[in-house]
TrEMBL record:
Protein name according to UniProt: CoA-binding domain-containing protein
Transmembrane parts of this sequence: none
Gene Ontology terms, MF aspect: acetate-CoA ligase (ADP-forming) activity; ATP binding
InterPro entries from the UniProt entry: Acyl-CoA_Synth/Transferase, ATP_grasp_subdomain_1, CoA-bd, Ligase_CoA_dom, NAD(P)-bd_dom_sf, Succ_CoA_lig_flav_dom, Succinyl-CoA_synth-like
Gene3D superfamilies given in the database record: ATP-grasp fold, A domain (3.30.1490.20), ATP-grasp fold, B domain (3.30.470.20), NAD(P)-binding Rossmann-like Domain (3.40.50.720), Succinyl-CoA synthetase domains (3.40.50.261)
């Protein structure tokens, strides 16, 4: 029996050596035609088998009438046919021994009870044959590390360090276009649709087991040190497993999510979109915080964090500096910095003097630094370099407005070069429209996050810093838990050594108390009176002398305890007394 909740090997799904496309077509106006074209244009290197009884060949590829006629069982099956044919295709795939499939067709759980029954039938076929299925009602997936575009949407195939999982194909296609426009590459983008078989936890487990390590030096240029993961989920399949995976991934990499369904209207819309049932949102909110998953409240926030985490390292401390060619945006940014839980960095006298030497008298050398509206690129660049050399500054935000003398493109290029030189996180906000587009494109080439408004940039910086703080706290907590685990093991060893005894002896009990952090009086097991006298010389009076023997629980009843011993003569008498009492045992 195929267990839907066991860890699945998805290597051949995301890195297939051969692919069959049922419904392949020469018509790029059809899904089967677009998908075939996308797979070939993405640079996929494996065998491609179009399957369609209406063709003998599609371009240079031999076309097969049925799956059973293929020369091998392909690693991946693309099902690009209507819902009515999907069941037969999956049955044939199972018989052929195919273990991975993508089903695009809609009309299942998302339409109601009738569709839910159809989806159950689809799931049963997958269970019967052990097929890892993405979908139905999905866009497919892109793996730029393979490379492979197994969707019917366009993307430029640029590799990067960010990974995505989405239940929405439309959000995926929008993200593809946005990434292309902003020079943001990604590793994988997996759309899940209704999650009939494979769900977010399966893909997260794959991400955990397969860290990104195949990017070239050129591809890594300008990227952050982490591999962020962005999620759009309308439902979470197994909350406990989701928390386990996100906590484990979150030790090294940030995860941010859009999870709609806070309102009744959104919950109803989700059910008709992917058949998702909304749970109690306050429970989800708490679970996400415990796991360190960042919840986005808007698509704009989701897109902004994608670029921020992919391109810049998170700040270690909350101290931010602002350079602006306009006073108004600088003042607004100061408020936003406070609201985001960040701090305006303080410049020392030396840095203020350096700024004073390169800025006009009317400019502000305090933070935020106002270089004035007539600033050319050179002035902005010099101020930027001075601030980046300031130890008290952890992050820099450069704000530019398109004034008469503003050199948008040249300024962006200077900032890009300084970013590569100083390696401190730099964020930009070029406020405006058509006049600032040139600068934004240049910043994108340098992989410097640019935002239309400074508040958006500051929100991203604040989120990144809080994630860094959470990561530090979890690391400290993990170290403490490791210490507790090690001490628990030692305590268990002591208890195991005492197996068969009625109780721990004094020495064993003392060791246990010390490991638990419980303060008790100093003690020592002695076998001779001389050892006892040496102990009293090293420690303060009074002392207690008591008998220690395995299984002896009530020492006082047998005269095995003498208290309040205040000098050497008394310890000699106590020793003699206990030794006499031993004879009576």
């Amino acid at each position: 029996m195929y267990n839907l909740y066991m860890t699945k090997d998805l290597s051949t799904l995301f890195y297939p050596k051969s692919i069959a496309i049922v419904g392949a077509s020469t018509n790029v106006g059809k899904v089967g035609g677009i998908v075939l074209q996308n797979i070939r244009q993405s640079g996929y290197k494996g065998n491609i088998y179009p399957v369609n009884p209406n063709y003998e060949n599609i371009d240079t590829l031999k076309c097969y009438a049925k799956l059973e006629l293929l020369p091998e069982a392909p690693d991946l099956l693309i099902v690009a046919v209507p819902i009515s044919t999907t069941f037969t295709v999956l049955q044939e795939a199972g018989t052929k021994g195919i273990k991975n499939a993508v089903v695009y067709a809609a009309g299942f759980k998302e339409i109601g009870k009738d569709g839910e029954q159809l989806e159950d039938q689809l799931k049963q076929i997958c269970v019967q044959f052990g097929i890892n299925m993405i979908g139905p009602n999905c866009l497919g997936f892109v793996n730029n590390l393979c490379p492979l575009n197994a969707t019917f949407a366009k993307t430029n195939g640029q590799s990067g360090n960010i990974r995505f999982i989405s239940q929405s194909g439309a959000i995926a296609s929008s993200m593809f276009d946005w990434c292309d426009a902003h020079n943001l590459g990604f590793a994988e983008f997996v759309t899940l649709g209704n999650k009939a078989v494979l769900n977010e936890n399966d893909v997260l487990q794959f991400f955990l087991d397969h860290p990104i390590n195949t990017l070239t030096n050129e591809q890594q240029k300008g990227l952050s040190h982490v591999s962020p993961i962005g999620l759009y989920l309308e439902s979470i399949t197994n909350g406990v497993e989701f928390m386990r995976l996100t906590r484990e991934i979150g030790k090294k990499n940030p995860i941010f999510i859009i999870k709609p369904g806070k309102t009744a209207a959104a919950a109803k819309a989700m059910q008709s979109h992917t058949g998702a049932i909304a749970g109690a949102d306050f429970v989800l909110e708490k679970a996400l915080k415990q796991s360190g998953v960042i919840r986005c409240n808007a698509l704009s926030e989701f897109f902004n964090l994608a670029r921020a985490f992919a391109w810049e390292d998170e700040p270690n401390e909350p101290n931010i500096a602002v350079i602006s060619n306009a006073g108004g945006p600088a003042v607004i940014s100061a408020d936003a910095i406070s609201d985001a839980g960040l701090s305006l960095a303080q410049f020392d006298d030396d840095k203020k003097k350096q700024l004073l030497e390169i800025l006009p008298r009317a400019a502000s050398i305090m933070n935020p630094v106002d270089v004035l509206g007539d600033a050319l690129a050179d002035r902005v660049g010099k101020a930027t370099e001075i601030v980046l050399q300031t130890d008290q500054v952890d992050t820099l935000l450069v704000i530019l407005t398109p004034q008469v003398m503003t050199q948008i493109g040249k300024t962006a290029s200077l900032i890009g070069m300084l970013s590569a030189k100083y390696k401190k996180p730099i964020f930009c906000s070029f406020i405006g429209g058509g006049m600032v587009i040139e600068g934004e494109k240049i910043l994108n080439q340098y992989k410097i996050p640019s935002f239309r408004f400074p508040e958006e940039a500051i929100m991203a910086i604040g989120t990144m810093w809080r994630w860094r703080q959470f990561q530090k706290e979890q690391q400290e907590k993990g170290n403490a838990e490791t210490e507790i685990y090690e001490k628990t093991n030692e305590i268990n060893k002591i208890i195991q050594l005492a197996h068969g005894q009625l109780s721990l002896d004094n020495q064993q009990a003392t060791q246990v108390f010390e490991m638990m952090g419980i303060n008790i009086p100093k003690s020592q097991i002695i076998k001779t009176l001389a050892e006892g006298i040496v102990f009293t010389e090293k420690n303060q009076w009074p002392v207690v002398l008591k008998l220690s023997a395995p299984g002896l629980l009530h020492k006082t009843e047998y005269g095995g305890v003498v208290m309040n011993i205040t000098n050497e003569q008394e310890i000699v008498l106590a020793w003699e007394k206990i030794n006499k009492n031993i004879q009576k045992l």
